């Protein structure tokens, strides 16, 4: 495994004490990875652990894998910086999250029914599980982007959203992946959708349809058509037209990808 920012962060004490002069442990991990600082500036790392981490990072650099963080890691660093400056009580009021004064001060909100804590420089599931970097980005983006606009009740496709054309292929790729996975197994889709809190709804055309409460202010509707001899299975994901008030185009793609990943993982877990 490469020793990137996220892996370095996981190896740190994660006290977010700021004794290293950085805003938190994730920002420190990014700075170490870029060569701006070394592990010696973390006063809470034991010497043996510091030597081990330094050797691993040096070995990574000797392999020529570079030091530039991935685009996801860079996005997360930027969001952590924005969270560090934000008034969390204001963010809670606009996003529908619960504000917890702390210490440490956090936001609590659920993603597809799973509660998470959003710290100023990290996101973790309430049960303590490490969150995937995609989930971290998605929840921080939602918390900082939300403006509290009311839902419209108008269900639209991604391509109908403003300035969505550049991300439409990425969005549709995830939905097509879901349709292929469940082709000929609509009952499996119904079962895993229910396990994730999806509420079956009736529609005039789709063979199956579900509504998910994705985030406090955002619901999604998944429509599925079973294939036949002439046409493959297909699916569509609709959202309330207010979604640009809560996520940008990239964040909306992340939200769709997260739902698809959860459904496929739940199906694979069922065997």
Strand content: 15-25%
CATH class of the largest domain: Alpha Beta
Q: What CATH architecture label of the largest domain applies?
A: 2-Layer Sandwich
Globally, the shape reads globular
The helix count comes to 9
| Topology as a string of helices (H) and strands (E) | HHHHHEEEEHEHHEEEEH
Strand order of the largest sheet: 5-9-8-7-6
Helix content: 40-55%
Structural class: alpha+beta
Domains (count): 3
What is the residue-averaged pLDDT? 91
**Major beta-sheet overview:** 5 strands, antiparallel
What is the number of E strands? 9
Oligomer: single chain
Instruction: Give start-end ranges of low-pLDDT stretches.
Output: none
Radius of gyration: 21 Å
Termini Cα gap? 28 Å
CATH fold annotation of the largest domain: TATA-Binding Protein
